[in-house]
Amino acid sequence: MAPQPIIHDIFESKTGTWQYVVADPVTKAAVIIDPVLDYDRTTQVISTSSADGLLSLIKTNGYTISRVLETHAHADHLTAASYLQNRLTRAQEPVQGYMPSIGIGKRISQVQDLFSQRYGVPSEETQGVFDKLFNDDEEFAIGDLRATALHLPGHTPDHLGYKIGDNVFCGDSLFHVDIGTARCDFPGGSANNLFHSGRRLLSLPDHVKLWTGHDYPPKDRAQPVAWMTVRDHKKHNIHLRDSITEEE
Prior knowledge:
Blueprint: E1 6-12, E2 17-23, E3 29-33, E4 36-40, E5 45-47, H1 49-61, E6 64-69, E7 78-79, H2 81-92, E8 101-105, H3 108-119, E9 132-134, E10 139-142, E11 145-151, E12 160-164, E13 167-169, H4 191-202, E14 209-211, E15 227-229, H5 230-236
Parallel strand pairs: 3-6, 6-8, 8-9, 13-14
Antiparallel strand pairs: 1-2, 2-3, 4-5, 4-7, 10-11, 11-12, 12-13, 14-15
């Protein structure tokens, strides 16, 4: 059996976002996935409370962060990736002396082009935002763990999932089984691509855990849920269970 990571799931309730710290239990190397920068719509104030909570968790557990990973360009919340990169670079300098890289899928350039055209953002302002652009199925290390970047388009064209051991951090490709999948009406989104990305995830072994990017619990389910197995989704996902076709 492949080595398995330690996984910390942290829920940000205002945006319904799951954030993750995923660590190698042997080396204490770790990555952060989809961190949130807090924004109060009423006061229009940005704060770092959620990100500071991640920093506290990392310090308490003695982790060294090698990467901050984004599953995709988020439209529903701000990312704390740059803030965390800055803080971690200073905190880790005595030990490692390097800056954690910010990674995302290589097709982020498509999303940047779409939003540059729509909102009049000069193209030079979107250059150099990310340190690492992952190719499809590219492998990388987290200490002694092996991880793979899976291209899962549909919600956005750049969307990735990160497979680490028997876990996939699948962002907005899949939600809880009673919600189904994410929306696909963002620029470059595609319902057909989202269906095929979901089917790719559900082709994995039944025991694999799929960790979602968001949860919005309905009234009959009080608590947010971070993961369900491939088996759970094949049986119960309202958009992707085995009996549902692409046309539906």
